[in-house]
Amino acid sequence: MSSLTDALDAVLPQTQCGQCGFDGCRPYAQAMAEGRANLNRCPPGGPDTIQALANLLGKPAQPLDPACGTHQPFRVALIDEEHCIGCTLCIQACPVDAILGANQCMHTIIETDCTGCELCVAPCPVDCITMVPAERSWTPADAQAARQHYQARNTRLQARHAETRGLAARTLANKPALVPDATEHDKQDRIAQALARARARRS
Q1: Taking a C-beta distance cutoff of 8 angstroms, is the pair 42, 52 a contact?
Q2: Domains and CATH numbers, the chain
Q3: What is the distance between the alpha carbons of residues 94 and 25, in angstroms, rounded to a whole number?
Q4: How far apart, in whole angstroms, are the C-alpha atoms of residue 128 and residue 85?
Q5: Where are the alpha helices (DSSP H) in 34-183?
Q6: Helix, strand, coil % (nearest 5) of the chain?
Q7: Cα distance between residue 134 and residue 75, in whole Å
Q8: Which residues pair with 84 in a beta bridge?
Q9: Which of 79, 141, 160, 203 has a 20 to 30 Å separation from 152 between CA atoms?
Q10: pLDDT tens-digit map of 43-79
């Protein structure tokens, strides 16, 4: 069963968006492997992913379940820095540490790390986060990088607190440093690049 779960997880997009109704891509893969979930519940993956899952499960492909959402071109989050109040709620919601910032300081998105999951949009109390076209496709390399970022985040949270989800995790554990394991120069350079990309998009 584990090998099937691994195979199914490997073809999922690793956006960790939860639109499938499960707490991330791997739980969804495990549920499919155990026969507890249909294979047509991944909007980010769309028809290609559904077909790949069907091939692995030896079942016919199905249309995407509309209850889960719609498949659309890859988008990334964009923070309007003029209205950001530095509440950190988006940082706490991001499953892959793709948001830079600190309490009461402006936040910005690391566009190359954003999976387009949209989980940062709803928590924002001032509605300063929008989803914009990425002008590129989500690739297997992106999925692999997202999986690594997600696993690194969960490892960090587990080291700080027994839970990685829910209110306790959001308030006690999920307050990442600006850029873990990076020099101060690297941090400032990465922030400057992210800000420049955000401003270029707005203009």
Answers
A1: no
A2: 2-68 (1.10.15.40), 75-202 (3.30.70.20)
A3: 15
A4: 9
A5: 46-57, 89-93, 140-160, 166-168
A6: 45, 5, 50
A7: 5
A8: none
A9: 79
A10: 999 999 999 999 999 999 999 999 999 999 999 999 9
What tokens were used for 94?
A: 């991001």
Tokens, residue 113 = 């790390």
How far apart CA 109 and CA 90 sit, in angstroms, is 10
Please report, as a single letter, which amino acid is at residue 73. P
Q: How far is CA 6 from CA 86, 131, 136, in A?
A: 38, 30, 27
User: Full-prediction pTM beyond 0.85?
Assistant: no
**In this predicted model, what pLDDT tens digit does every residue of 162-199 receive, in sequence order?**
654 554 444 444 444 444 444 556 656 666 666 666 56
Tokens standing for residue 80 = 């309007």
Whether the Cβ atoms of residue 160 and residue 173 lie closer than 8 Å to each other: yes
